[in-house]
From TrEMBL:
SMART domains (alphabetical): AIRC
Keyword Nucleotide-binding: no
Pathway: Purine metabolism; IMP biosynthesis via de novo pathway; 5-amino-1-(5-phospho-D-ribosyl)imidazole-4-carboxylate from 5-amino-1-(5-phospho-D-ribosyl)imidazole (N5-CAIR route): step 2/2
Name of the protein in its database record: N5-carboxyaminoimidazole ribonucleotide mutase
Reactions catalysed: 5-carboxyamino-1-(5-phospho-D-ribosyl)imidazole + H(+) = 5-amino-1-(5-phospho-D-ribosyl)imidazole-4-carboxylate
NCBIfam families tied to this protein: purE
Function noted in UniProt: Catalyzes the conversion of N5-carboxyaminoimidazole ribonucleotide (N5-CAIR) to 4-carboxy-5-aminoimidazole ribonucleotide (CAIR).
Record-stated family: Belongs to the AIR carboxylase family. Class I subfamily.
BP GO terms, sorted: 'de novo' IMP biosynthetic process
Binding site for substrate: 12, 15, 42
Record keywords, A-Z: Isomerase, Purine biosynthesis
EC code: 5.4.99.18
Domain of life according to the entry: Bacteria
Length: 163
């Protein structure tokens, strides 16, 4: 069986509304992936096990979303050299600024590539993972170029109401 190249993990099932946007992009590009809840806070042993097994399982990128005290991406990155793409999930009280700061302010030496708060960040993390994989996959690169071209045409076709 071919290894799954991208793992999508999130701190809670309540993050799914946001993280489903990453999964949708991966599906759209035909990139095999898995999605599961892994919480550094609530299931630290499982989180360690996931990170420790990631490279040997063939994962090329881990997209990790979390909200509030969002330590999941950073702790995964602490335990694996597989690139971790962090998605700040919008939190109820601080609108995800807490999540963003928790994910982006990593100490030197343990990077987490951090994306925008919310669905756009989740989708962009997946597009970034696709771009990484496309470095070694010409067919995937062609799909990504077609996606961009389509997006450009959609933007060019945008109209505004009369003044
Ligand atoms: N930030 C983390 C971690 C973690 O970083 O390990 N585990 C859960 N959470 C976050 O807690 C928020 C509320 O979770 P619940 O809705 O389950 O109470 C979620 O956004 C989740 O990502």
């Amino acid at each position: 069986m071919n290894p799954i190249p991208v793992g999508v993990v999130m701190g809670s099932s309540s993050d799914w509304d946001t993280m489903q946007h990453a999964v949708q992009i991966l599906s759209q590009f035909g990139v095999a992936h898995e999605a599961r809840v892994v919480s550094a806070h609530r299931m630290p042993d499982d989180m360690f096990a996931y990170a420790e097994a990631a490279a040997a399982r063939g994962l090329k990128a881990i997209i990790a979303g979390a909200g509030g005290a969002a330590h999941l991406p950073g702790m995964l990155a602490a335990k694996t050299v597989v690139p971790v793409l962090g998605v700040p999930v919008a939190s109820k009280h601080l609108s995800g600024v807490d999540s963003l700061h928790s994910i982006v302010q990593m100490p030197k030496g343990v990077p987490v590539a951090t994306f925008a708060i919310g669905p756009a960040g989740a989708a962009n993390a997946a597009l970034f993972a696709v771009a990484m994989l496309a470095n070694h996959d010409d067919a995937l690169r062609a799909k990504l170029q077609a996606f961009r071209a389509e997006q450009t045409e959609a933007a060019r076709a945008m109209t505004l109401p009369p003044a």
